[in-house]
Amino acid sequence: MLRGQMMDRPLMISSLIEYAALYHGDQEIVTRTIEGPIHRYGYRDALARSKRLANALQRLGVGRGDRVATLAWNSQRHLELYFGVSGLGAVLHTINPRLFPDQIAYIANHAEDVYLFVDLTFLPLIEALAPKLKSIKAFVILTDAEHMPPSRLERTLCYETLLAEASADFVWPEFDEAAASSLCYTSGTTGNPKGVIYSHRSTVLHSWGACMPDALDLSSSEVILPVVPMFHANAWGLAYAAPMCGAKLVFPGAKLDGASLLELIERERVTLLAGVPTVWLALLGHLAETKKGLGAVRSIVIGGAAAPRSMIDTFQRQYGVNVLHAWGMTEMSPLGVVNRLLPKHAVASNEQRLDVQVKQGRALYGVELKIVDDDGKELPRDGKAFGHLLVRGPWTANGYFKGEGVRLGAGEWFDTGDVATLDGDGYMHITDRAKDVIKSGGEWISSIEIENLAVGHPAVAEACVIGVPHPKWDERPLLLVVKRSGATVSREEMLAFLTPKLAKWWLPDDVIFVPELPHTATGKLLKSKLREDYRLHRLPAS
Ligand code: AMP
Fold first, then answer.
1. For 124-167, what is each residue's pLDDT tens digit?
2. Separation between Cα atoms, residue 270 and residue 298, nearest integer Å
3. Domain ends where: 176, 207, 238?
4. DSSP E strand boundaries for 91-205
């Protein structure tokens, strides 16, 4: 082989913050702190403090490959941990505080975390859990000496004191780019959570992918407000991609309600928002109440769950904001596809454009996709055939921490657990999670599609469709609806609303109104629980 003669520089996470400090040193990172006030500084300061943190960690005995955990909101301190921990060669383990306490204890023990950095908000949770956390040497409270609370916890340290005592002189080590950099557990609906372990290389490559114009189109003119938490798939990679391109970051801390978000959006002239649909429902509610607009926001990334057509339409037509529907998963760092319209759609009608935008989008370079049937045979990309969605690429996991779950060999594909179509233009459309698809008379019914139509009814705040056992058809769809406050709608009205929009055999057999629906720690409908709760529900004879 004739080898290329190009430098083999390792792709290191520390190089992202070094670059941002050098070329965008004054670009701001703004945080609504847990203590209350707004904090602002530039990438130059973020680098200096990440280096102080790296020195402090070293003094605490943290070495290469050690896991350092966080239980924290989106903030400048969490960003410093992203770079200080991984930059040192240790592994940043972002724990999702919305998990059940026992799951938190399970994953902290499973990861063998040596330190836990915790926001003031989560102190009561940790006080209750501390006796179960076996490997943790100390809890570092993410605050300054003045705000250190009295605590029953033994072994607590103050973050700001640690940093103040450490030097900002630190040379990031260079090591194999394949080394683990961070760890994020996925909460499957059954069984214990499994750890996805990213590398420096996968993280840097994913950041490049995210910045690309047909992906999130990030640059130094962008002001990004990630509502998606830094404990959920690295805030969709934004905490790394923003310094790569020098974008301004605005962190909302613990306040994710519509009013608090809007205040930041207006004051900081935010241009790009990112988060799951439920957050945007709250923001839209607030906008409707206050009759306000979205200021300088140009785009809003909606992912994590399907973006309903009505939501896309409202953001675009009423608020002049371009919706970027996106799909991915923790195992994919997480970005897989982003929905941008093609030049040919410029002449399409609003409805035709929405037909495209309800799909999740087209693959980024670096993500290979295909759909297969139950026997693994590839299905056509015709927008009609749907099958198991498989993926492959340099930022997709090939296994889980400590060898649990699947272990893929070179060239093998990862089964996402989603069921999807791929059309001739490459747009992928999720029809369901494989385990949520409703199997009726040997055919599949997409629960997501019915849900998306149902939330288009003005009286519906949230909808969920599950399959319930049926003696003749195997399963039939049952629609659960949470009404908007003050709104009224009957079962018959709901069905009449859906009838013209659905194939007859897709129409739910029953509609039940519920005060609320259960969600997982990452904001997805907890359908396994609902299936269990409604297993014995008697559908009316049709
Ligand atoms: P997580 O690993 O928690 O981010 O969950 C990943 C899963 O969320 C995917 O496998 C999908 O089932 C679902 N998901 C993510 N984005 C979307 C989307 N835009 N539309 C529908 N489902 C989505």
1. 999 999 999 999 999 999 999 999 999 888 899 999 999 999 99
2. 8
3. 207
4. 91-94, 115-118, 138-141, 156-158, 180-186, 194-199
**Domain membership flag for residue 154:** yes
Q: What is the mean pLDDT of the chain?
A: 95
* Distance from C-alpha of 21 to C-alpha of 281, rounded to nearest angstrom: 36
Which tokens is 428 given? 């992928």
Closest listed residue to residue 274, CA positions, set 217, 220, 331, 317: 217
Active-site residue, 331 included = yes
> Is the pLDDT higher at 319 or at 521?
319
DSSP code for 314: I
DSSP 8-state assignment for residue 538? -
| Boundary (domain end) residue, out of 190, 207, 224 | 207
Residue 500 lies in a domain: yes
Q: Is residue 540 part of a domain?
A: no
The CA distances from residue 274 to 69, 358, 407, in Å, are 24, 17, 31
Owner of token pair 């409707």: 288
User: How far does residue 396's CA lie from ligand 1's centre (Å)?
Assistant: 14
What's 458's domain CATH number? 3.30.300.30
The yes-or-no answer on residue 186 being catalytic is: yes
Give the closest residue to 367 by CA, choosing from 401, 408, 331: 331
Contact 76, 46 (CB under 8 A): yes
Angle, vertex CA 142, rays to CA 141 and CA 143, nearest 5: 95
Q: Which residues line ligand 1 at a C-beta cut-off of 6 Å?
A: 186, 233, 303-306, 325-327, 329-330, 334, 360, 416-418, 430, 433, 522
The residues, any chain, with a CB within 8 Å of residue 194's CB and separated by 6 or more, are: 185, 186, 188, 400, 401, 404, 405
Total domains in the chain come to 2
Tokens for 299? 């785009």
Q: By residue range, what is the domain housing residue 136?
A: 10-207
pLDDT digit string, tens, across residues 461-480? 999 999 999 988 899 999 99
In a domain, 368, yes or no: no
Question: What CATH number is associated with residue 36?
Answer: 3.40.50.12780
